[in-house]
Specification:
With about 210 residues, this protein is an all-alpha fold. The protein has one domain (about 1-200). About 70% of the residues lie in helices and about 0% in strands. The chain has helices at about 1-5, 5-20, 25-30, 45-55, 60-85, 90-105, 120-130, 130-145, 150-165, 180-190, 190-200. It is globular.
Length: about 210
């Protein structure tokens, strides 16, 4: 029973459950009455929200897309910040980060389906490795404006985070970069179909 009341365990479970909340799906259904799980890429992320809602309500699409990014990022950040306030260890904080991203990508509420983890990854990285994440976010924004390919911009931004964090001392206080790499691996893995389309020159742009 002590296991069930252990603070670390409670935060780890909360991280997965909160990370699993499909905000994109909820927002699109509530405000645009569309099911993004049955349209577009069928992802619950902001890009698919933007793509699908734009077909019926272009003026609303951008707002819902931005709201999805913010909420998906916050569901990673908020649990970490609360855990920090409780004084949990750095190892637990990184465990929370990994489970938040896993929750988004493999949501318990959607039969272990979900999004691709970019915004939630950004949310946990900004709390734990802020300098590297700001660098990655800048790369993401610049690439998005220039390339207008969401998946490629996201992956380039993620790569910039990993490279930056590997060269600067930015909060990795667990004696290993493995948790950071694991989060990146999950996001890369979820983007394999996009990477294949990029190689084939078939990945669509978001205008």
């Amino acid at each position: 029973m002590d296991f069930l009341t252990n603070t670390n365990v409670l935060f780890l479970v909360a991280a997965y459950l909160v990370g699993s909340i499909p905000f994109g799906l909820i927002l699109a259904k509530t405000f645009a009455d569309v099911d993004i799980k049955s349209a577009g890429s069928k992802s619950i992320g902001a890009t698919n929200v933007l793509r699908v809602v734009k077909e019926t309500n272009p003026s609303l699409a951008k707002k819902l897309g931005i709201a999805t990014v913010i909420l998906d990022a916050l569901k990673g950040t908020v649990v970490i910040l609360i855990a920090m306030a409780y004084g949990v260890s750095d190892s637990t904080l990184w465990g929370i980060a990994v489970l938040s991203v896993l929750g988004h990508c493999y949501s318990i509420y959607l039969g272990l389906e979900g999004g691709k983890g970019v915004a939630t990854g950004l949310g946990v990285y900004i709390a734990l490795i802020p300098i590297a994440t700001l660098i990655g976010a800048a790369v993401w924004i610049i690439c998005a404006k220039v390339l207008k390919i969401s998946s490629l911009s996201s992956l380039l931004g993620l790569t910039a985070v990993i490279i930056s964090a590997s060269f600067i001392n930015d909060g990795l206080n667990v004696g290993s970069n493995v948790p950071m790499y694991l989060i990146a691996f999950i996001i890369y893995y979820k983007h394999i179909p996009n990477i294949v389309r990029l190689i084939k020159g078939q990945e669509g742009k978001v205008i």
